[in-house]
Specification:
Blueprint: H1 14-17, E1 29-37, E2 45-56, E3 61-72, E4 76-92, E5 95-110, E6 140-153, E7 158-163
Antiparallel strand pairs: 1-2, 2-3, 3-4, 4-5, 5-6, 6-7
Length: about 170
């Protein structure tokens, strides 16, 4: 519950950082991100991200969609998809404020069968036996997730704030 996936080139995934980046450019944009950590080991960490955003004059702002998938060591899985609306307010010819809301759905789960507990290890460290642990009633969670963001942009600078998981 307490960890979001992180990308090493976080700046290449602007909607993941702040939903107020939706519709930031003149042209539509697509961002594809991939992170592979500990790829040579059995329990690799793989994270995938994709997003699309575009500015629309008739909406006075931008819309976007974003989806991420994270696999942690082959044990923990999380998937999230969301839609974004970002309102653009021109304060003067060199300063724009952007306010965004993001709403989506998340799923997080555990592959119980991939876990190995100490009582399953046989003497000498070879093989595994049947363990005594019982599976908990719930090994996954899912639900709605909301975020918001603000972005101020000048001619050669920008800065903002984002608040993720507002309802959790």
């Amino acid at each position: 519950m307490g960890q979001d996936p992180h990308f090493s080139q976080f700046y290449a995934n602007p909607l993941y950082i702040n939903p107020a980046f939706a519709g930031n450019g003149i042209c539509p944009s697509i961002h594809l991100n991939y992170r592979n950590q500990n790829s040579s080991s059995i329990g690799a960490y793989n994270t995938y991200g994709v997003s699309y955003d575009q500015y629309f004059d008739f909406l006075s702002g931008g819309i976007g969609i974003i989806s991420t998938s994270d696999q942690q060591g082959g044990l923990l899985y999380s998937n999230q998809s969301a839609a974004i609306y970002s309102y653009h307010l021109e304060l003067d010819k060199n300063l724009t404020a952007r306010f965004a809301l993001q709403g989506g759905y998340y799923y997080k789960g555990l592959d119980w069968n991939a876990l190995v507990f100490p009582d399953q290890l046989e003497a000498g460290g070879s093989g595994t036996s049947q363990g005594n642990e019982s599976q908990p009633e719930t090994i996954s969670i899912q639900g709605a997730d909301f975020s918001a963001g603000v972005l101020l942009a000048g001619k050669n600078w920008y800065g903002g704030l984002a608040a993720h998981h507002l309802n959790r």
